[in-house]
Amino acid sequence: MGVIKQQFKDISEKQNSAIKDMLKEHGDKKIGDVTLSQVYQGMRGITGLVTETSLLDAQSGIRFRGFSIPELREKLPKAPGGAEPLPEGIFYLMLLGKLPTEDDVHHLTSVFQRRSHVPSYVFNTLESLPINTHPMTMFVIGVMALQNESRFAKEYQKGMNKKDYWGFMYDDVIDLIARLPRIAAYIYRRKYKNNEHIEPDGLLDWAGNFAHMMGYDTEEFRELMRLYLTIHADHEGGNVSAHTTHLVGSALSDPYLSFAAGMNGLAGPLHGLANQEVIKWILDMQAELKSDEPSAKQIEEYVKKTLSIGKVVPGYGHAVLRVTDPRFIAQMEFGKKHMPHDKLLQTVWRIYEVVPPILQSLGKIKNPWPNVDAHSGSLLYHYGFKEFDFYTVLFGVSRSLGVLSSLCWDRALSLPIERPKSITTVSVNNWLQGKEDIAGD
Ligand code: HAX
């Protein structure tokens, strides 16, 4: 057994027995009440899931195993001469619950390198799709084609002991993460770069190699990829992509099936597609105003126009956060360091001054502040990465680190199939008239 797999086994076994003891003593304790409004409004605020990898605080933002984004940018190992964390490090942290050393991260880089081979039938599948297929659709189809490789599915078919589930899940998870950059880069080069592909560089880290295979080979862009793939990795368990991956995995669907399902959710405009929407919205604004340096007043009018036609301002608002997303701030810092005079970034920063008070004045929006998607596209755009319908694929490659390390935990903790209770409005009305008991009272 590999070093990291052995450590995961030991750590998760300990956690498993600690949880059993905890539930024996405290399993009947209540952790909240559920209101009728919450049931009708996207289950907002209902605590109903365990996700070990990260925890979102409405006021301070995301913490990965207790560490904030600024802390991780400081503490996680970097590439030689680099300043941004290597995403291998955040995967290690989420999986094992402790900070990696440089050696741990190098080890993981070489494991991902070793297991990154993508069979040619996956590329052939992608080749058969119309070129105008959305890259997220291609990405999901690429992952689904790869499902043929699932060790978990094969072993399950043969009939395996429940105790072995986690181990085969783990192996699939490592294989899948290792292969995703190759699939994503293949889609990018096929769709936008005349199908001219770039072979992997066996000496580069996971993010650096991804940048290389897409055709962006400067050290500065690799640094952006390392930051990007680190900060998008996880956002606790209730968001659509994480929850979907977990839910589908709870049916013992293998990591390929579960991750592909999660990616279908990430492809929605209220979730991961928002990064594409943001840049499109800004470019439309520039085109309409015939200016690449719109003033605060012009932005204000454009925002009001967007709202007046019943659209959301993309990149603003959040279901849980109530402050500026620390992932927005991390990207703003990267921009101020590497490209402070870029006009598109300056527009993003001006929008940040203008939008929150307008959204606040509407009185109904719970969080008027920018989320991660308000910034990411402009950084990519700066480097000539202008195919913004691909941006969500980058998000998806990153998100694999969080949702798939969680899937390892789901199986290691033997979490059961998920099955919340649903109700009908007829039953609610009956309950309100005292004719039916849906609340267990
Ligand atoms: N612009 C205009 N109106 C907005 C808004 C925005 N950016 N954000 C919320 N609202 C509106 C909602 O549409 C809702 O209006 P109605 O009552 O008329 O339906 C009202 O304000 C209350 O919404 P909320 O409770 O504050 O927000 P939700 O938890 O329902 O939704 C969303 C959270 C992120 C989906 C929402 O803020 C939104 O649509 N934002 C724009 C899209 C976006 O940036 N999505 C990316 C989110 C981050 C992410 O998941 N990335 O992957």
At a glance:
This protein is mainly α and 441 residues long. The chain has two domains: 8-17 and 39-270 and 386-418, Citrate Synthase, domain 1 (Orthogonal Bundle); 274-382, Cytochrome p450-Terp, domain 2 (Orthogonal Bundle), CATH 1.10.230.10. The chain is 59% helix and 2% strand.
What fraction strand? under 5%
> Can you tell me the CATH topology of the largest domain?
Citrate Synthase, domain 1
Mean pLDDT score: 96
Number of strands: 3
N-to-C span: 51 Å
Adjacency order of strands in the biggest sheet = 1-2-3
Tally of contiguous helical segments: 20
How many structural domains are formed by the residues?
2
- For CATH, the homologous superfamily of the largest domain is named as Citrate Synthase, domain 1
Helix and strand run: HHEEEHHHHHHHHHHHHHHHHHH
**Which molecules are bound in this entry?**
N-hydroxyamidocarboxymethyldethia coenzyme *A
Main beta-sheet strand count, sense and barrel state: 3 strands, antiparallel
Helix content: 55-70%
Write down the oligomeric state: single chain
CATH architecture label of the largest domain: Orthogonal Bundle
Please tell me what the overall shape is.
Answer: globular
What is Rg?
22 Å
Given helix and strand content, the structural type is mainly alpha
pLDDT < 50 runs, ≥5 residues: none
